[in-house]
Amino acid sequence: MDVPLFLIFAAIAVACGVNVVVQRHPITSAISLIGVMGSLAALYLLLGGEFIAAVQVVVYAGAIMVLFVFVIMLLNAGAEGRSGRSWPVRLLGIPFLVLLLGLLSFVVQAYAPKTDRVVFGAFTSGGPRDIGKLLFTEYLLPFELTSVLILIAIAGAVVLARKEID
Amino acid sequence: MPSSYPEQYFPIVLQIAIAMAIAGAMVAASYLLGKRVRNPVKDSAYESGMVPVGTARERFSVKFYLVAMIFILFDVEVVFLYPWAVVYRDLGLYGFLVMFLFFDLVLWGFYYMWKKGVLDWSEEPPRS
Amino acid sequence: METVIQHPLFAPLVITAVIIAVFPLLAGYIVLVERKVLADIQVRLGPMRVGPHGILQPIADAVKLLQKEDIIPTEADRALFWLAPVIPAVTALTAFAVLPFSGHVVVTDVNVGLLLIAAMSAVGILGIIIGGWSSNSHYPLLGALRSSAQLVSYEVALSLGLIAGVMSAGSLSMLKIVEAQRERGVWFVFDNYGLMIIPFMVFLIAAIAETNRLPFDLPEAESELVAGFMTEYSGFRWALFFLAEYASIFVIAGAGVTLFWGGWLRPFPSWGWLDIPLNYVFPVALFGVSGLLTLRLAQRLKKYSSARAAFLALVGVGVALVGLVFLIPPVNAAIIGVFWFLTKVGAFIYFMIWIRGTFPRFRYDQLMNIGWKVLIPVAMGGLLLNAIVGMALA
Question: Is the ipTM value over 0.85, yes or no?
């Protein structure tokens, strides 16, 4: 059951990802990106990270996509024109893509440590309680640093937007 | 009650699938059932009975963009609060202090935003 | 192997089917109740034509909407225009999956149930933005902009209110939240010496704003934006937006009831001697009195139309008979949880309609100021206060 489920959601993620690049209107690309986020959430869930899966939907599919769509509307970005590509680009694109994929799979094969097969439902410590316990004991420093990051981001957003308004 | 992950989450996947099917079927049914008489006036954008002026693909105030950005930051903060709220009774005072350290930095950010007038909506942004 | 997989999924599937089959009808009747209550507040009668006292109005509306002409503006982005109403409808219906109607009547219970509801309401916003943008018309665009800015602003306050409840419950699972209230013997609104009322009020106000209800219905303010992001929508696509709106009202009321009002628990869950008066006498009296009042209405209707009066009398007898069902102990045990849950959700929705009938609409800048400068600080303060008091109690 796990392998087909993984393949289904991985296929959706990849298909949506390709669609993000292929689509010429930014809004359509953004909607494809929601599909990517959604299937990534499903993949996290298959690994047992239910809290991460839910957060993925809340933060990425919810908040960040709203910002993306806003930016697209704000910039009034229309459909991209199809630029005439030069012949070396057309000629070399496909072989280089194949080469890149081959290289990537070789590296993963050769250097990734051998691990056990992941079984959906085997790992059950991805719930909010376990995350909370780890976050506030073992990973306390990164957690506290996140608040500094948020503070900096707020300051950055304010300064940038002020510049726009003035 | 189902206890394992697959048993817990398959119903949600099913629910999403059925909801999509129902919503799609409704849209399709209205497409098939309703009669259509098209004419250019009816199919133009609605502007209170006037002939539409210009395009709706226009630029708008940067304030909306700013709200979306700040929303993301607060959303991230809130997401960290969820696991804290779940374990807060187990952690006790330690958990509260640790969270307060996190919380008050974000509060300073909020205060800064407020003082900088980001939250003032009534004020017209000065035009350049 | 087959039976092992099928068995645990059978019950959730049935509940899903019932929810999705019943929901459009339920939404229709929430609309009817809303119209009737608003009419009553404004000293009018409300819908009276279709069926006695308008009780068949939702069905007539549904048939009408199905036959309506399907208009897509020429300028619109067709694919997105199609897609937009589907998004909020799917997210709202998905959120139903974790709503516990009672301890047994729930599609599924997951460790992140409450977060799932928050996630679905966050994604639903995209449908509104896309709907407004794809119409390529001024009013929908403005409506969508305002709507999304409003929704994201109030979502932070909503989450902060929810988190205060989660602090008391110690879980995000909807079933465990209610179980925690049973164990502690208190609905969480009254927890921490009653201080939880602050997060609850924040939640309530944010919930009204999240569902685009008056006094926060700026996105579809009729007097200035025609119908906001839905202006260009017609027929069943419009109905889908509408359905999603009422679905999310039900979901948010259900989440509020589960987290703050004890879900399917009866009032005073820890007092055993209240079992008979509250679990038997109350539902029987509620349905019995409603049935009798309906019969009286039917009697008055008789001088105008005997057929309508007979129909209404039949409805009244039916309602009274439902009350009698609660007298059978095994049946009572099975449905009393659902009864309390739906009663509380009904009260919650009634309250929202009441507010709609009472308050004038806010101006847009007031709305954003209330969201950021009042509601979020109050929510943060309430959260910290409850954290301190809750810790002192523990």
Answer: no
